Automatic annotation (TrEMBL):
Cofactor(s) needed by this chain: [4Fe-4S] cluster; Mg(2+); Mn(2+); iron-sulfur cluster
Enzyme class: hydrolase
GO MF terms held by the record: exonuclease activity; iron-sulfur cluster binding; metal ion binding
NCBIfam families for this protein: cas4 (TIGR00372)
Name listed for the protein in its UniProt record: CRISPR-associated exonuclease Cas4
Species of origin: Hydrogenispora ethanolica
Amino acid sequence: MSISYPDSDLLMLSGIQHFAFCRRQWALIHIEQQWQENVLTFSGREMHERADDPFFTEARGAVLVTRSLPLVSRTLGLYGVADVVEFHRDETGIVLKDRPGRWRSYPVEYKYGQPKIDDRDIVQLCAQGICLAEMFGTPVATGDLFYGRTRRRQPVEFDDSLRNRVRELTAGMHELFEKGVTPSAEYSAACKSCSLVEICLPKTGSRRSVRRYLDEALR
């Protein structure tokens, strides 16, 4: 039996990329509400702002392009906003208001830089696909990641393995959020590009929360 999360228990969809990258980073942002911007997050935010144009829909032949589409999944317990959702003409798709024919939804997520060696971007895109499938009542099988540095799209297939990975991650997010616990720090090469490295203090191996660390330092 699947869980249906109420509004009060919904978590930010964008957080799944942080959770997949580092659970401590996710906890610092979403539990302790710490955030520090570096050049990567700034450039990424600028790209999102260029992609985001609320309530804007553009027709490109057999494709409708919608920006800043609100998303929600009750089964995952996530909410957020899609950078871009394309609707492609497809006789097996859904009916859209004031648009003739049927359409299939196709999420496109914009990212700064280039494809990652891990799956953090892929699981975020798949989570968007699951949201769209629930919202429109029709399967969403694929989506694209667009990287600013390569200026190319990377297609992603939402197979069962990837969907299960997303479900496992979101279940872990809800469990950790409910406990209100920040995992201990473990330093790795990935920490160099983390926007929270100066707050996280990974080289100390600290098991304390950042809030407790700061409280003690200021006494």
